[in-house]
Amino acid sequence: MRHRLWPYFFVGPAVAAIATGFLYPLAKVVWFSLYSGSLGALSYVGIANYAGLWQDPVFFQSVLNNLKLLTTVPVMTILALSIALILNAQVRGWRQYRAIVFFPYILPATAIGLVFGYLLERNGVLNTQLRSWQLGWLAKDWLGSAANVVPTIGGVIIWQQLGFGVVVFAAALLAVPQELVEAAQLDGANAWQIQRMILIPYIRHTIEFFVVVEAITVLSSIFTYVYVLTKGGPAEASSVLEYYIFENGFENGAIGVASAAVVVLLVLACILIAFYLRLRARATDTGR
User: Fold this and answer.
1) How far is the CA of 117 from the CAs of 46, 66, 153, 166, in angstroms?
2) How far apart are CA 268 and CA 21, in angstroms?
3) Which domains, from first to last, does the chain contain?
4) pLDDT at position 154
5) Distance between CA 2 and CA 18 in Å, rounded?
6) What's the predicted TM-score (pTM) here?
């Protein structure tokens, strides 16, 4: 019996840490989602907070904006993979180029938001420069227009996250057995055929991992960009789920509504994680 219990002795601290740092807060969030009012005066309302979400146009706008921003994932995946393939050819200075591309990823999101806010405001650096080049027709109200604000935030996200994808893909490409490439070259394959038939299929699992990670990031880790750049404006046009949660939980004091939105966000993230695990299980079953 002692030997059977011995492994649990080692696992116990990790399980306790997970339960304390994740499971207990998660249970409290679910519990709060069934109540309304402030922390000092909560009243049980059941699933009324969830029903209220579906009647709130701001919530739907926030979900829609998150879905729109998910379109940045394929864009940054294609760009990152293209750059990684170019760097994998070891062009002159490829290590320096990789560091330059990765640099935005390590910058604080707050600093990025402040800089781009200064660049992209109506009379900011970008529009001023465009007008000086007689290209005023290209100048837009990038952050103050409901039509432009979400694509603008998406562009900032791509710029910041692109370096992560380049480094991940470049590292995966370095692990491709060189003999595969040499054999293809001996068979007369050109550079494009080697990339399409050997390199990209070989790092397919890495690409899938990156897509899921970035999708979760776009769903649950872009609050700072929205808060610093637009504060959800104009007229909630750039609100996302994270900002909706912040606005209801901290500014409006609607703890129950915010907690219900957190549960919805968690469910969406779990769907993406389950999709990725399903892909990995299928790949394992087929031996790929």
Assistant:
1) 41, 20, 10, 25
2) 21
3) 57-286 (1.10.3720.10)
4) 95
5) 25
6) 0.88
